[in-house]
């Protein structure tokens, strides 16, 4: 009976523990919460989502959709629970975050091959082990990692969007709908004319940000910029970004608004809504003042204000080898955002791949993730030599190019078809 330690009960850690347990390993899963909380978490549930409740695009010919298909093909626990906790979100997969985390916590704690240890890890784990302590790795354990791997931890900042109570929305000023009608009436849309947007823009760009902590610097991940930072790039940046009105017609006027703020359901009962694309580091009082300038949100009550928190990751090209294994410590892996993948399901995928590779090494199997799959391509990206390494979301640019000169959509379909064909062969070899 093989015994494995997994440090960290986030998406990557839970996926890794589940995959190993499903293959007969006895797993010790260490999670410091709720005894020691992070600046962003609110509960002791495993796999708690702390930023958006969206897990990205569903379209199978998109990178996000292809990643979901690959995870489902390899029997991902996280994907199964996400599908079970889904809430309407147009062409995206969004979840009721409490139901989602509750399902995963129950599955993990009820598994006879997994022992959940609610304690802070203070020592570097002995092989076989997977470290998946996430972007909010405890500073003490981060020091342990730095000492062992000989590399300073790198960091950037992530910003979470505010959540408002549904009952506080003025529904006479908003309308339901998705851009171009995709997905049905899954978003609440707050339309702005030019004057309303101009006033909002001036107040947003002049608002006071939260007092920076000692360790904070102006260094953000490009895909998750605070809305106020994005706005300062120019008056029309938001109109061509998260507030773009294209494909949306206000039924009250029959016209396309100048700008639109979209609200997405946070839970299955539609009692809360997330301001889409409004990650922010504004002071809480400023968030209430500025965001209440949005039509329909004049009396908005906030269930959660936006927060800024630190995201940590290692210099993966220098410390990681194949499938997230540490070069200097065979049998020890780093998975999740700590490994330099960015995104909920990307983190999930890294935990799955690390677990499969570890299981393979324990049982004499060679696990080769095809480079034509996003799971394989992401694992290769973080270990590839790169003097200016930055975390990466799943995208088609990571895949080997298609030789044929095809239009964009046909090329994406080819990427998806090729991936599924390759992954089907791998899945057969991994059959329990």
Task: Write structural notes for this entry.
By secondary structure, the protein is an alpha/beta fold. It has 2 domains: 3-153 and 314-429, FAD/NAD(P)-binding domain (3-Layer(bba) Sandwich); 160-309, Beta Barrel (Elongation Factor Tu (Ef-tu), domain 3), CATH 2.40.30.260. Helix content is 32%, strand content 16%. The chain contains 12 helices and 16 strands. The longest helix is centred in the C-terminal third of the chain and has 22 residues, at 408-429. It starts with a strand and ends with a helix.
CATH names the topology of the largest domain as: FAD/NAD(P)-binding domain
Describe the largest sheet. 6 strands, antiparallel
Q: Gyration radius, to the nearest Å?
A: 22 Å
CATH superfamily of the largest domain: FAD/NAD(P)-binding domain
């Amino acid at each position: 009976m093989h015994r494995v330690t997994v440090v960290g009960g986030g998406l990557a850690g839970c996926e890794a523990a589940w995959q190993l347990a499903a293959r007969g390993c006895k797993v010790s899963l260490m999670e410091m919460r709720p005894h020691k909380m992070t600046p962003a978490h609110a509960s002791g549930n495993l796999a708690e989502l702390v930023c958006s409740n969206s897990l990205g695009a569903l379209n199978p010919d998109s990178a996000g959709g292809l990643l979901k298909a690959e995870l489902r093909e390899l029997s991902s626990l996280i994907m199964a629970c996400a599908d079970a906790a889904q809430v309407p979100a147009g062409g995206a997969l969004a979840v009721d975050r409490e139901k989602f985390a509750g399902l995963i916590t129950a599955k993990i704690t009820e598994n006879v091959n997994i022992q959940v240890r609610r304690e802070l890890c203070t020592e570097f784990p002995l092989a076989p082990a997977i470290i998946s302590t996430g972007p909010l790795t405890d500073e003490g354990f981060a020091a342990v990692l730095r000492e062992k791997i000989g590399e300073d931890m790198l960091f950037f900042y992530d910003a979470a969007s505010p959540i408002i109570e549904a009952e506080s929305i003025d529904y006479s000023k908003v309308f339901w709908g998705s851009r171009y009608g995709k997905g049905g009436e899954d978003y609440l849309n707050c339309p702005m004319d030019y004057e309303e947007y101009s006033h909002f823009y001036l107040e947003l760009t002049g608002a006071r940000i939260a007092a920076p902590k000692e360790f904070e610097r102006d260094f953000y991940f490009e895909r998750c910029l605070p809305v106020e930072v994005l706005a300062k790039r120019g008056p029309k940046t938001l109109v061509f970004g998260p507030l773009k009105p294209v494909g949306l017609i206000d039924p009250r006027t029959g016209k396309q608004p100048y700008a639109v703020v979209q609200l997405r359901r946070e839970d299955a009962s539609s009692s809360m809504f997330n301001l889409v694309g409004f990650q922010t580091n504004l002071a809480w009082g400023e968030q209430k003042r500025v965001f209440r300038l949005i039509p329909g949100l004049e009396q908005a009550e906030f269930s959660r204000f936006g927060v800024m928190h630190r995201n940590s990751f290692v210099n993966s090209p220098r410390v990681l080898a194949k499938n997230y294994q540490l070069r200097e410590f065979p049998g020890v892996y780093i998975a999740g955002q700590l490994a330099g993948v960015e995104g909920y399901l990307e983190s999930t995928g890294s935990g799955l791949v690390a677990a499969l590779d570890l299981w393979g090494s324990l049982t004499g199997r060679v696990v080769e993730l095809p480079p034509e799959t996003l799971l394989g391509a992401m694992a290769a990206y973080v270990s590839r030599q790169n003097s200016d390494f930055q975390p990466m979301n799943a995208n088609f640019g990571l895949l080997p190019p298609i030789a044929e000169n095809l239009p964009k959509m046909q090329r994406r379909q080819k990427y998806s078809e090729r991936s599924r064909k390759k992954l089907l062969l791998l899945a057969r070899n991994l059959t329990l």
